[in-house]
Amino acid sequence: MTFFKLQQLLKKYGTIIYTGNRAADLELMEEEIKELERLGLIEKDVYLDSLLLIKKEQRLAVGKDKQ
Fold first, then answer.
1. d(CA 47, CA 21)
2. Cα–Cα distance for residue pair 33/30, rounded to 1 Å
3. Is residue 34 within 8 Å of residue 27, measured between CB atoms?
4. Residue 26: its pLDDT value, please?
5. Whole-angstrom distance, CA of residue 31 vs CA of residue 20
6. Which residues does 33 contact at the CB level (< 8 Å), separation at least 6?
7. DSSP-based three-state secondary structure for 15
8. Which end of the chain has fewer beta carbons closer than 10 Å to its terminal beta carbon, N or C?
9. Where are the domains of the chain?
10. Cβ–Cβ under 8 Å, residues 15 and 32
11. DSSP 8-state class, residue 41
């Protein structure tokens, strides 16, 4: 999964997230993905792939902030 595909997945369910703050965007995306999985709208493998991508992006964002 790519970040773009994650955004498209959320968009498919009516969610567009852009706050101008990458860390905040990722947090909101994580909450939305968890909610979609809880409601049974996405499959477990899509849910796990999405969470892995979000966690990876969060680590990258933290690394950029430290530089």
1. 23
2. 5
3. no
4. 96
5. 17
6. 6, 10, 42, 47, 50, 51, 54
7. coil
8. C
9. 3-66
10. yes
11. S
Locate all alpha helices (DSSP H) within the chain, ordered by sequence. 3-12, 22-38, 44-66
**What is the spatial distance between Cα 67 and Cα 47, in angstroms, rounded to a whole number?**
31
- pLDDT tens-place string over residues 11-62: 999 999 999 999 999 999 999 999 999 999 999 999 999 999 999 999 998 7
CA 13 to chain centre: 13
> If we measure between CA atoms, which residue out of 18, 45, 51, 20 comes closest to residue 33?
51
Q: What is the model's pLDDT at position 65?
A: 64
**Fold for the domain defined by 3-66:** Helix Hairpins (1.10.287)
pTM listed for this prediction: 0.88
Tokens of 32: 């939305």
On the CB side of 25, CA atoms within 13 Å amount to 14
